[in-house]
Amino acid sequence: MKSSFKRQLIYHFNASDARELETIQSLWSGYGTISRWQLVNSNVSTVIVKHIAIPIESNHPRGWNTKNSHVRKVKSYEVEMAWYHHYSDKTNDHCKVPKFHFTSEMGEESRVVLEDLDAAGFEVRRSQLTVQETKLCLKWLANFHGTFMNDKPNRLWNEGSYWQLETRPDELAAMDTNWLKKNAKKLDDKLRNCKYKTIIHGDAKVANFCFAPDIKSVAAVDFQYVGGGCGMKDVVYLLGSCLTEYECEQHEEELLNFYFRELRGSTKIEAFPKLEHEWRSMYAIAWADFTRFLLGWMPTHQKVNGYSLKMEQIAKSLLD
Length: 320
Hints:
Blueprint: H1 2-12, E1 17-26, E2 32-40, E3 46-53, H2 67-86, E4 100-106, E5 109-115, H3 131-147, H4 169-174, H5 179-182, H6 184-192, E6 198-200, E7 209-211, E8 218-220, E9 227-229, H7 232-242, H8 245-266, H9 272-297, H10 306-319
Antiparallel strand pairs: 1-2, 2-3, 3-5, 4-5, 6-9, 7-8
């Protein structure tokens, strides 16, 4: 199958040859690989190939080898392909994503061929950010959310984010009984029933952002959990992934104000004050919803901290 795919690359890019240079990483639970290919005598020098090969037996690093987990992952790859086919070309330089070239399906295997962001000038990866650098990613999210405001998530997840309650019954069952478990559906309903919705990235952690060397521009990857929803789900996940609990506490207002200024500039929605009012009230709800997932998936996770517990208490007062 690899030789057949190689011929596809050569034909599509009018190259004289195609060579797999390196495996960049394996996909979660052994569902495939991401690799870089070189194209010889072509206008495009390198591409990224996401190769999905569903294993007979998965190997989840935290032991969640369940039917629900498998079904969710398989759908996530179908959603990502649909995203690149039908939505990715609507983005712009303010919410940069890798250019989509084509997909290839051979038997049980599929591949998506994308622009090499390293070659495009986004070769830096970070695990933590300063507050100012975090704003760069918030600007990306605001422009992404503004671009797709009120769009229907056709072919995507109806409710975006990888921890969405409907897709995580195993983790909910594993939770100790507490307020979050008892009110999981109420939190989910609150987010689902937002009047103002967009298409969210769904996995907007810092590891999925690619930076220019000067850290003044950014692109994003990994659209397996893209779908409909409230933009606060992306915002809280981003902040929790790149800032300490102290930084989240100290800079919450500054960062939210920045996000909403950027969002206002990226969307033409007339009722923006109403959208902002609703989404600000969803900030603690979304954070509590994510904490609910963590307490079932990995209750000792570092993101279960004083700030997340504070957000839980605010969410509780909002629901009550």
